[in-house]
Amino acid sequence: MSNFKALLVFFVPLFLQAQAVLKVSRQAQMVYSKYDHSFMVFDDSTHYYTYNPAKGAWRMHNIHLQLEAGWDLPTFKQRFFPLAIGKNHYLFVMDGCGMVYELKNDTLRRIDNSYDQKNQFGSALYAYKGQPYMFGGYGLFEVKNTHTYFDFASKEWFQVGEHSAKDYPDARTTPYYIQTAKDLFVLGGVKKYMTYNKILQDIWKFNLQTKRWEQLGELNPDFIYRTKVRGFVQNKDYRLFHTNNLLTVVDVYNNKYNSYRSTHYMSLARLVPDHQMKWVLQAGQNSNHTDVYLLKVKKLKEILYGLPTEYYLYKSSSWFKQLPIEIYLWLSVLLNIGLFFILFYSHRITKTAWYRPKNPILYRKDFSEVEWEAMLLIEKNDELELSALNYLFDEPGLSYETLKKRRESFVRALRIKLALLTRRDVADLLQESKHPLDKRMKIIRWSNNLEINKEGE
Predict the structure, then answer these.
(1) Taking the domains of the chain in order of start, what are their residue ranges?
(2) Alpha-carbon distance 411 to 86, whole Å?
(3) Concatenated DSSP letters for 381-442?
(4) Whether 89 contacts 100, CB under 8 Å
(5) How far apart are the first and last CA of the chain?
(6) pLDDT over 60 at 297, yes or no
(7) At 365, phi and psi to the nearest 5?
(8) DSSP 367
(9) Which of 22, 169, 264, 367 qualifies as a cystine partner to 372, CB 3.0-4.6 A?
(10) DSSP 303-363
């Protein structure tokens, strides 16, 4: 039996070298390492695999798993994503931030002093100068624009100290990213408003050296559609990806992407390019074995079928679109307050104008026969005993008390009518006073600010 195991150890690597295709499960984790110029694939508890294009063969490596209590391999592969940080050196970072495992010297063990934070699910996970970073994500019932990194000295996660707080991406989950030697590009993502999800269309550049953000513009709607259909992988660089029968190759610095169309892309599940975009690890699907991926490493030019169609990646955003939504909310509040004051002031001006004295000329057409005759009589005498108007209301058999009430009602109604027509105070029109010689009698005076138009009489 021991001889049989020895033969397996000797022949299995040779068998793998002869194979151009590696068969793994759909849950296999994969990443490219620029330090080894190799693609790494992790799928089982005893081995992991690497492929160096220069050597042209898969290599199997022994692995010793030291998982924490309560963790099994399927759950680990579901929640941890690999990053290459050095030669034959990898980290497996938890999806929601916190726990970190290190794969080094064929041993996979936990190295952090953190915990399952559940704070950045769906974040952009990348590595820079051997350190893992996470941007954005969802956790604790809210979407974040948190930017964190893992510190090896303290073995804890800390906030990245950006140099500018003025220009900073909005909170988002599932942001697609493209990483170069000096920049990180964050493309779109999703912003959640309660039960409503908003697909973001912006693109940001983060200078990895100066740690400054810059908004570049608004993504091509076609690109947003492609990434949405493709789906989000937390540690994937989206310089190269496929959507159904379309292959997308992004040239972010030249603000464009090329699109290739072929039915060959329909059978692909994942594409992992190298850092120079020369080689690609492709995970293919077999319709007879839907739970299995077939891994091949090919030159990129070998999977570019037909002539490409070129699209712009983004266009500059207008100044208005770059303003935070909070600014628009405050502007809306201020605008409503301003409109309220304008309406209030205009109403007050109109109301004041209505009370402003009108032309005091009185015209025959505005009054009845009795009213007109009474006004002419008062105006002619300038002041008149109120009893002089009795003849206008006297009737045979009418008592004096009834006659007096009719006269008083008439004068009161006439005074109100004059006030409405001339917009003057009632108290200032046709004023009454007691006779200087006989206090029992009343005198009615004509208002000097009124003028009767007698033309046409």
Answers:
(1) 21-322, 361-452
(2) 106
(3) HSEEEGGGGGGGT--TT--HHHHHHHHHHHHHHHHHHHHHHHT--GGGSS-EEE-SS-TTSE
(4) no
(5) 139
(6) yes
(7) -70, -15
(8) S
(9) 367
(10) G--S--EEEE-EEPPPTTTTS-HHHHHHHHHHHHHHHHHHHHHHHHHHHHHHHSPPP-EE-
What region does 243 belong to: left with phi over 0, alpha with psi -120 to 50, or beta? beta
**Residue whose tokens read 């005074």:** 415
> Do 279 and 273 meet the contact criterion of CB atoms below 8 Å apart?
yes
Q: For residue 404, give the amino acid letter.
A: K
- Average pLDDT (62-76) is 96
Report d(CA 106, CA 245) in Å as an integer.
39
The pLDDT of residue 359: 66
pLDDT mean over 51-80: 96
Q: Per residue in 419-441, pLDDT tens?
A: 888 888 888 888 888 888 877 88
Q: What are residue 346's phi and psi, to 5 degrees?
A: -65, -40
- If pLDDT is split at 50, 70 and 90, which confidence band does 171 have? very high
| Predicted local confidence at residue 15, as pLDDT | 45
CB–CB of 176/227 below 8 Å? yes
236: its two tokens: 């994937």
Is residue 50 a contact partner of residue 39, using CB atoms and an 8 Å limit? yes
Q: What's the farthest any 2 CA atoms get from each other in the chain?
A: 149
Residue 361: what pLDDT? Answer: 85
Percent of the chain topping pLDDT 70: 89
Residue 237 has what DSSP assignment? B
Distance of CA 163 to the CA centre of its chain: 23
